Amino acid sequence: MSSPGAAPTDGYVRALIADDPLELYETAPCGYLSLEPSGLIVKVNRTFLNWTGYRIEDLVERRTFQSLLAMGDRVFFETHVAPSLIMQGTVREVAAQVVGASGERLPVLLNAVRKDDGFGGHLRTRIAVFDARERRAYERELLAERERAERAARDARALAETLQRTLLPPALPAIDGIEVGGAYRPAGDGTVVGGDFYDVFEIHDGCWGVALGDVCGKGASAAIVTALARHTIRALAVRQTTPSEVLRGLHDAIARSDVDSFCTALYLTAEAVDGGVEVCLSAGGHHLPLRVRTSGEVEEVGRTGHLLGMLEPLHLHDESVTLGPGEALVLYTDGVIEAQDGAELFGEDRLRAVIAEHRDAGAQELADAVAAAAVGFQSQHTRDDIAVVALRVREDR
User: Which string of DSSP letters, residue by residue, matches 92-142?
Assistant: First the structure.
């Protein structure tokens, strides 16, 4: 190989002799046109003619280049390309459509150079035309693929939202003497069904069941266990006398199922009594609920038992507490305290602070405040599902 600045090699000279400049122009892999300042075509190569189906006598000294363009591209050429040539002397990669002799449109990319006479006078415009049919086909396929992907994402999100709604109560009931609030935020963009769930339902007159849990995993397998958990708790609640017996029944149901999974869950009963609301609860591997007193003091209630669906023998506990007027109980999943900002967790201290700050709020406002604080802590990008249920004893109890 010759070094930069060296004389051409014999091979280079032979190549110049072998390539007829006129033949090189006529059969170049792109169309070439020369235009007068008015745009009138004065020279065109064979490649362009072959692509468009025109004869040389159809174009030279008879048509302007602009007249070969589709109407929208013709306007763009006059209003953008021509002024750019005057100001800059060149334009590159302008997408356009050339209308061929048969009326068929040929997608092209245009490069153009303005040639002056050295005194500011315009002599010629030289245009190179590149066939962009394959590129346009690729772009159309790329656009179609993106639209298919967006449609699939919309369908997946709609399916996830629909399925998730079946795993949560459509509306929370009105309970005499007790305010109830619930909040749920899916992880990510909501396209994957999570394993968090909650439920509030009447067991018998004046006695209500409240469940909240977190199934291991995401997607269809988690949804199966979530649905199993909700319906099992409801079915057992009318037959079993204590919350721990209900959770033990759920443990057995998960262990017998074909899905290899487990869950954590809280289940409690709530019944209005003189001077407040009596709550009896059991926790199967779940974070204990937090009681907020009217003074703002926040404390855990209950004792944690084993995960459900895994260990034998299973150890669970029942704990009773009476909530006074104005007091609240907050149940939450680990998506709240494990919300992350970088390496920092939201944590129980922040959760307690939010609950204390909203101790005078209604149950729904309290649940929303907890969920919003956890979501905001991670800049709206939730890494895990978040479920919160708040119970608040009415002041007039």
Answer: EEEEEEEE-TTS-EEEEEEEEEEEE-SSS-EEEEEEEEEE-HHHHHHHHHH
Query: Which DSSP letter does residue 69 get?
Result: B
Q: Where are the domains of the chain?
A: 10-137, 172-393
Q: Which CATH superfamily is domain 172-393 in?
A: PPM-type phosphatase domain (3.60.40.10)
Global pTM exceeds 0.70 = no
Q: Which CATH superfamily includes the segment(s) 10-137?
A: PAS domain (3.30.450.20)
Give the C-alpha separation, 42 to 191, whole Å: 60
Per-residue pLDDT tens digits of the chain, which is 397 residues long:
455 555 556 665 555 555 677 888 899 999 999 999 999 999 999 999 999 999 999 999 999 999 999 999 999 999 999 999 988 999 999 999 999 999 999 999 999 999 987 777 888 999 999 999 888 777 788 888 888 888 877 776 676 666 666 667 878 998 888 999 999 988 876 666 778 899 999 999 889 999 999 988 777 677 788 888 999 999 999 988 899 999 999 999 999 887 778 899 999 999 988 889 999 999 999 999 999 999 999 999 999 999 999 888 999 999 999 999 999 999 999 999 999 998 899 999 999 999 999 999 999 999 999 999 999 999 888 888 899 999 999 987 5
Chain Cα centroid distance, residue 379 = 15
Cα-trace Rg, the chain: 37
